[in-house]
C-alpha cells in the first residue's frame, strides 16, 4: 500500500480518536455514565485501524519514526481495552486516592496522544499542526469536564 495513503489513514484515525475522547469528556460533564460505558467497546475498536496501519507500515518498510510513534497509541488502546472492558470495573473518575492502574492509564493516554502528534509531524507540518490542535481541543474538553465537576462538588458541599 502506498505510504501516503497509510499516513492519511493514520491522521484520520487520530482525529477520530481525539473526537471520541472529547465526546467521552462531554458525556461525563452531563453525567451520562451509562452511555459512556456503552461507547467503550466502540472506542476500543480504534485499536483495529491503528494496529492494521502500524503493521502496514512494517510491511511497507517505513522508517523507524513511523513505527516508534505509532506504537504508543496501540499500547494505550490495549491498556484501555483491558482497564475499562476486560476488568469490567466501574470507572472512578475522581477517586480520593488514585489507584496505580488509573495513573498508568493516564500516562499511556498522554504518551500515546503525543506520539500521534509526532507521527503527524513526520508526515508534514500541516498534519502535525492539525493533530496538535486536535490534542489541545481534547485537553480543552477535559478541562471543561474538570471545571464543571469541581463546580458541582463545590455546590454540593455548600
**Coarse morphology:** elongated
* Averaged pLDDT: 91
Strand content: under 5%
Distance between the termini: 60 Å
Number of helices: 6
Report Rg: 17 Å
Specify the helix fraction band. Answer: over 70%
Q: Describe the sheet with the most strands.
A: none
Describe the protein.
With 158 residues, the chain is mainly α. The termini are far apart. It has helices at residues 3-29, 33-44, 47-59, 64-86, 100-123, 125-157. The chain is built from six helices and no strands. The protein is elongated and about 60 Å long.
Can you summarize this structure?
The chain is an all-alpha fold and about 160 residues long. It has helices at about 5-30, 35-45, 45-60, 65-85, 100-125, 125-155.
Topology:
Blueprint lengths: L2 H27 L3 H12 L2 H13 L4 H23 L13 H24 L1 H33 L1
Keywords:
mainly alpha, 6 helices, 158 residues
Amino acid at each position: 500500500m502506498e505510504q501516503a495513503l497509510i499516513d492519511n489513514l493514520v491522521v484520520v484515525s487520530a482525529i477520530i480518536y481525539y473526537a471520541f475522547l472529547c465526546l467521552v469528556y462531554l458525556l461525563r460533564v452531563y453525567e451520562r455514565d451509562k452511555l459512556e460505558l456503552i461507547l467503550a467497546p466502540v472506542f476500543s475498536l480504534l485499536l483495529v485501524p491503528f494496529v492494521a496501519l502500524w503493521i502496514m507500515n512494517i510491511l511497507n518498510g517505513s522508517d523507524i519514526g513511523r513505527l516508534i510513534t505509532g506504537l504508543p497509541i496501540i499500547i494505550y488502546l490495549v491498556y484501555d481495552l483491558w482497564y475499562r472492558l476486560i476488568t469490567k470495573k466501574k470507572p472512578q473518575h475522581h477517586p480520593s486516592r488514585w489507584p496505580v492502574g488509573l495513573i498508568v492509564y493516564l500516562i499511556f493516554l498522554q504518551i500515546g496522544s503525543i506520539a500521534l502528534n509526532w507521527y503527524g509531524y513526520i508526515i508534514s507540518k500541516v498534519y502535525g499542526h492539525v493533530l496538535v490542535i486536535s490534542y489541545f481541543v481534547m485537553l480543552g474538553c477535559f478541562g471543561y469536564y474538570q471545571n464543571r465537576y469541581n463546580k458541582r462538588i463545590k455546590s454540593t458541599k455548600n
